[in-house]
């Protein structure tokens, strides 16, 4: 039996975010080792698609070249069920870090938590899927005492979920949440409809964003609004609204109907200029009112309304004045009155997403 | 012996913030009572200047009309030392909530923590006094395992301290912190040098701010910059700089030399118009560069420089575009790059200050 202050960490997913998490985890493990009051962290399991690295004796895996070692691993890959059994049998408390965006893994969260294994993750799927899955997860955590934290599922490392929880838990009344929740959409509209100057053509901005790596491989995966809808689902539920799913409220897609079913992202980009006039009209209409158009998500808690789509804002509004690919989230509450509590900054990227994960891990460790 | 999940709460200070804390504490106690996984909170002690209410048997005080009952109390007042002895002998874990701004109470924090009593407070004095006091407090907490949280000591309920701690603890490199840390200064400069329009005379804006209750009874207590210097001291220390005291770095006072020693705040306000031309010059100089003047605090972590005073900002800068009496805090870090992580909102007021205290209390309870 390991000493009480041993905590085992299991990591699934070692891509962009996963690699940053591993690096931050290595730093944390070293810092903790110098402090008698901190637990001793041991990475006992890591997996990525069909590759796994783990010790049947639960001894710590060394971090040196771990991503390469994982790629070269010929160790028998454990299925998700086998992984959970392996972790549940560990002789110390375990924190499971899910860096994937897999629905299959998310569907196992309630089961994982029921085994006393805590979860930390940027994976939105578990919290923005069916409302039943949400309820199962938090009921399971409450019953077993295991913790589940997912700060990076909205706004990456920005303190969005923790702030909303604090507002609710301390008894404030959150009346409205509004913001720009997608780095891609932020970048696109800050370039297409800047507060100063006239901006480029919509299709050119989308193409540029793709070239700079700001969009998914197929830009339609950003333009359909579903990513923003998932984040809104999470925040609405935390604010107390039992939102059924990310498709149970109005979500405006910026994909022209005619291009929804074209075969590839490249073909989509090629044909997008045919539809530039639609977006140009929207921009001009806003300009006539002295405003700019932005792609926002909003939650009206009193009216129980959630929506995602284009809105017009005064040029001096914090949402209009955003830069680069920043996110911005405004919490309107009874205590804060007319001027909301606002959080702004990078809402995507490996390092800042991993920071939310590592920050959550620290919070779990303090509560175990 | 009370069951393990009993936690006792002691409150000192029942003025503006204190009353709001009591009200939020009552709400929290009721919500916790409905959840089997939450501790049972009992308020066992409350005091205010020469009045105290407590039970020698450590039974819970009812919240009904508690402020009035405290005012009418004829119970023997305990000295601070007696209070600590009373709490240290309690048959359950105790959280001490200090709603005062007393240096005498702050000086006892290390002793209180050494008795295993956790502390939650908006009182800046303990964390912005001598560096030795700071070290004693955190050494004592680390040795006894008691917790000490002070979110509301900077920016009231805004998640400023928790965010800075997360950045540091997860291994980010904080390079610069900059912001407007005083609701009074924010209000004054948003009116005196607005981004649109010309603003009023300096002395008129100070008088108006006082009439609206935005300043201390003697406005010089805001204009000397010490309140901002205290907050900067706290943030600089959390960022790793061993700042000796709030007077060990440059702090610009907005009190004209000639008015430093006039007898009263009223006389100060009466004579302030004689010095309007000085502030007008500063404003005009900024305007000539297309900028506005603001009273900011900044920390350059690399250069180990902390300073408080007037600075010029482009009209489109988030610090220039503030509204009302909002605070804004920008964290520049290695991970966040050129676009900082920004937190903005009300940084003063009873309810939002109490929210920071209640939020901290919840965090302590989760870690006890």
Automatic annotation (TrEMBL), chains A, B:
InterPro entries cross-referenced by the UniProt entry: Asp/hSer_DH_NAD-bd (IPR005106), Bifunc_Aspkin/hSer_DH (IPR011147), HDH_cat (IPR001342), HDH_CS (IPR019811), HDH_short (IPR022697), NAD(P)-bd_dom_sf (IPR036291)
Pathway connected to this protein: Amino-acid biosynthesis; L-threonine biosynthesis; L-threonine from L-aspartate: step 3/5; Amino-acid biosynthesis; L-methionine biosynthesis via de novo pathway; L-homoserine from L-aspartate: step 3/3
Catalytic activity: L-homoserine + NADP(+) = L-aspartate 4-semialdehyde + NADPH + H(+)
Binding site for NADP(+): 13-18
Pfam family, one: Homoserine_dh
Aspartate/homoserine dehydrogenase NAD-binding domain boundaries: 13-151
Binding site for NADPH: 100, 124
Active site (catalytic residues): 231
Binding positions (L-homoserine): 216
Keywords: Amino-acid biosynthesis, Methionine biosynthesis, NADP, Oxidoreductase, Threonine biosynthesis
Co-factor(s): a metal cation
Role this protein plays: Catalyzes the conversion of L-aspartate-beta-semialdehyde (L-Asa) to L-homoserine (L-Hse), the third step in the biosynthesis of amino acids that derive from aspartate (the aspartate family of amino acids), including methioinine and threonine, the latter of which is a precursor to isoleucine; production of homoserine leads to a branch-point in the pathway as it can either be O-phosphorylated for processing to threonine, or O-acylated for processing to methionine.
Protein name as annotated: Homoserine dehydrogenase
Native organism: Hymenoscyphus fraxineus
